[in-house]
Amino acid sequence: MIIGVPKEIKNNENRVGMTPAGVKELVAHGHKVYVQHTAGLGSGFADDEYVAAGATILPTIEDVYSTAEMIIKVKEPIEPEYKLVKKGQLLFTYFHFACDRPLTDAMLASGATCIAYETVRDRQGTLPLLIPMSEVAGRMSIQEGARFLEKPQGGKGLLIGGVPGVKPAKVLILGAGVVGRNAALMAAGLGADVTITDISLPTLRHVAEVMPKNVKTLYSSRHNIEQELPSVDLVIGSVLIPGAKAPHLVTRDMLKLMRPGTVMVDVAIDQGGCFETSHPTTHSEPTYEVDGIVHYAVANIPGAVPFTSTLALTNATLPYALRLADKGWREACKADPGLAEGVNIVDGKITFKGVAEAFDLPCHKLEL
């Protein structure tokens, strides 16, 4: 198979879809790999390393799309890329269709096959291609939240861990999935007073057993969240419904419960966000204020630490990329029902229920 690795063009996105090590594996399996000039530079991989691994370097993104049968990326195509996607081409990347109607319409019109990292499942029912970036995003949510609690950044002027004689910041984490648990670990390690919520009692029991003593659990309900907000300094939104829009757990009217300078980090923003007042931001302009509350809603949080993120992501995606290249996507999905769940769009038809429901469009059975 002919595989293309374009350079990411989303704002401050420095990750790359394939490392030189991954290229070497694909080439060893008999595939041809074309990498765009400087695609890996932001993650620390020079063109020479890709060439040494067996790749061919192409000068432009147009060259990569026009040459490849399968495109391997990190983030969803953005508007300048829509016209480059070809009928019958396979795209393997994060898409998050349910919160992006223009992207959905563009991929439907392209006739391409879109396999979304975020809805692929393994035999245990977990999301193996989402977990690595959720781990990074969860940990970074606290790092970024602590930064924006500083007064020059618009926050209250709090040190998240406090000092002897001064209380630490109070952190509320909505959702005890991979993002939430990693956020809780980071916040606890910094000495914060942490509360983590979820609607799953077994999950909360597990969290209570494994987390440090400065992490408390709370059942997630509107009432309980409202009771916490007046005393909270940092709120992390980390609720996920795979492939579908995130629910709004903090509404506009709930902002008045918080003190000015409180920081809210919406890690679910690439699925629409779990705060009603959230809208996507970028690493170059990461925050904005609503009613005195600082909102951080960067849609590609792990893109700020590409040396870590690219390796973590490609460790997980490479085995799937090899299967798709070796067998073709239909045979690979026949052999792995969890991979088949990653197929969101095929030949102008939506095949993933959450995406269809988000836009009230028909959902078609995936024909393999």
Kindly estimate the percentage of residues that lie in beta strands according to DSSP: 15-25%
Q: Going across the major beta sheet, what is the strand order?
A: 3-2-1-4-5-6-14-15
Radius of gyration: 21 Å
The outline comes out as: globular
Q: Give the overall pLDDT as a whole number.
A: 96
Number of H/I helices? 13
**Residues in helices, as a percent range:** 25-40%
Q: Which structural class should the secondary elements be placed in? A: alpha/beta
CATH topology annotation of the largest domain: Rossmann fold
| Unreliable sequence segments | none
Q: Which architecture name of the largest domain does CATH use?
A: 3-Layer(aba) Sandwich
Q: For the report, how would you describe the main beta sheet? A: 8 strands, mixed
Order of helices and strands: EHEHEHEHEHEHEHEHEHEEEEHHHEEH
Count of strand segments:
15
The CATH class of the largest domain is Alpha Beta
Total domain count: 2
Measure the end-to-end span.
19 Å
In CATH terms, the superfamily of the largest domain is NAD(P)-binding Rossmann-like Domain
Could you characterize what this model shows?
The chain is α/β, with parallel strands linked by helices. The protein folds into two domains: 2-120 and 305-358, Rossmann fold (3-Layer(aba) Sandwich); 133-304, Rossmann fold. The protein contains 13 helices and 15 strands. The protein has helices at 20-28, 47-53, 61-67, 79-82, 101-110, 131-148, 178-189, 201-210, 222-228, 306-327, 329-335, 337-340, 353-358; strands spanning 2-5, 32-36, 56-58, 70-72, 90-93, 113-116, 170-174, 193-198, 215-219, 234-237, 263-266, 287-290, 293-296, 343-346, 349-350. The strands form two sheets. It has an eight-stranded mixed β-sheet, with helices on both faces. Helix 8 (201-210) links the parallel strand 8 and strand 9 (215-219). Helix 1 (20-28) packs parallel to helix 2 (47-53), helix 6 (131-148) packs across helix 7 (178-189) and helix 10 crosses helix 11 (329-335). The longest helix is centred in the last third of the chain and has 22 residues, at 306-327. The two termini are 19 Å apart. The mean pLDDT is 96.
